[in-house]
């Protein structure tokens, strides 16, 4: 799979040409795919839209459990996740080099649905105000009120020596994910970052330890297979074990739902991520909670990862949810108008 570290550094001329091209494009209706912005958008375009800057206003937001994922999670029931959020003692999940110190503030992972959230603190030890990443400028058409991720400042690496944050497992396993800078808490030399991740791009994750890495662009190491290379980790932290979160599932196992994740296996769809236009939770009190409604421009998911299993004839999709809820209040999930009863 092509990664943004495979591309050369951006030049001023390339930046200018991309901006001129974007300005000349006609207005387009909202995208019908969930994937393009999150996975397939050209890294050259992301690089062209990157903006620098390190002057962020400090905030007095507490780092207490239940407010750990303030940037990503919404809804009155976000506090319910505190029993499953691992918040390590200060100084325990840490790695550092000459320039930066990386700490894992908290992590939440639902292995049943395959969805995770993580909160990081990156300190610039030298105090020179240089971030080891860029922040992408939010694209206007994705800043509608119903799109949960539309206004986040994504962390991207476009220059040699910069860091790409990723969650990995084993020797060859990589998670899909996106990491965002919390501009309300970050300062010139302290960067607070939250990320959503999904393990098993090839559906090969079968449990086990996860590891957070800050991979350095331009420095490679050989993989254990002896054939491939990847960016070398500048910083790495082993993540703790996770307590099993409650989840609901359909009788046939095709749909799994937790408070932060949704996993769908559908043999009738060529691509679940592309073809799933509406996702709604039917609550036991008769109310509804909309997760996705493309026609209305609603997307209360943080990250989506689809995978086609052509050899066995089915397609899967996993979503990290931005809108929390009390799982016990859910009666059924409705996918593209078809209701699927859920049970523990």
Describe, in short, the structure shown:
The protein contains four helices and 21 strands. The protein has helices at residues 12-24, 35-40, 43-48, 272-275; strands spanning 50-51, 94-96, 100-110, 115-124, 134-136, 153-156, 163-169, 173-181, 190-199, 211-222, 229-238, 248-249, 255-257, 261-266, 278-283, 288-293, 298-299, 301-309, 314-321, 330-335, 338-341. The two termini are 36 Å apart.
Q: In terms of topology, how is this protein built?
A:
Elements: H1 12-24, H2 35-40, H3 43-48, E1 50-51, E2 94-96, E3 100-110, E4 115-124, E5 134-136, E6 153-156, E7 163-169, E8 173-181, E9 190-199, E10 211-222, E11 229-238, E12 248-249, E13 255-257, E14 261-266, H4 272-275, E15 278-283, E16 288-293, E17 298-299, E18 301-309, E19 314-321, E20 330-335, E21 338-341
Antiparallel strand pairs: 1-5, 2-3, 3-4, 4-9, 5-6, 6-8, 7-8, 7-10, 8-9, 10-11, 12-13, 13-14, 14-19, 15-16, 15-20, 16-17, 18-19, 20-21
């Amino acid at each position: 799979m092509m990664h943004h570290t495979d591309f050369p550094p951006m030049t001023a001329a390339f930046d200018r040409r991309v901006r001129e091209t974007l300005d000349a494009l006609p207005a387009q209706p909202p995208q019908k795919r969930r994937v393009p912005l999150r996975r397939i958008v050209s890294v050259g375009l992301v690089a062209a839209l990157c903006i620098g800057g390190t002057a962020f206003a400090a905030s007095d937001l507490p780092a207490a459990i239940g407010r750990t994922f303030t940037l990503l999670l919404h809804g009155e029931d976000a506090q319910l996740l505190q029993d499953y959020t691992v918040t390590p003692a200060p100084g325990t999940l840490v790695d550092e080099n000459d320039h930066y110190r990386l700490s894992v503030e908290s992590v939440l992972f639902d292995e049943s649905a395959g969805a995770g959230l993580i909160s990081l603190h990156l300190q610039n030890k030298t105090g020179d105000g240089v971030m080891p990443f860029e922040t992408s400028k939010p694209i206007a058409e994705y800043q509608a009120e119903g799109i949960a991720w539309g206004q986040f400042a994504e962390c991207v690496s476009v220059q040699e020596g910069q860091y790409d944050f990723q969650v990995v497992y084993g020797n060859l396993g990589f998670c899909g994910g996106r990491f965002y800078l919390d501009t309300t808490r970050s300062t010139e030399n302290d960067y607070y970052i939250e990320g959503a991740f999904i393990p098993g791009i090839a559906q090969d994750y079968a449990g086990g330890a996860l590891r957070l890495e800050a991979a350095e662009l331009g420095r490679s190491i050989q993989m254990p297979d002896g054939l491939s290379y990847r960016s070398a980790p500048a910083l790495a932290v082993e993540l703790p074990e996770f307590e099993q979160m409650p989840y609901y599932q359909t009788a046939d196992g095709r749909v799994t739902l937790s408070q932060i994740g949704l996993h769908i296996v559908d043999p009738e769809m060529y691509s679940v991520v592309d073809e799933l236009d509406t996702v709604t939770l039917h609550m036991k009190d008769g109310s509804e909670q909309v997760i996705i409604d493309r026609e209305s421009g609603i997307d209360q998911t943080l990250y989506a990862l689809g995978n086609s299993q052509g050899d066995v004839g089915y397609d899967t999709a996993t979503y990290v949810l931005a809108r929390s809820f009390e799982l016990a209040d859910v009666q059924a999930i409705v996918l593209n108008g078809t209701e699927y009863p859920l049970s523990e």
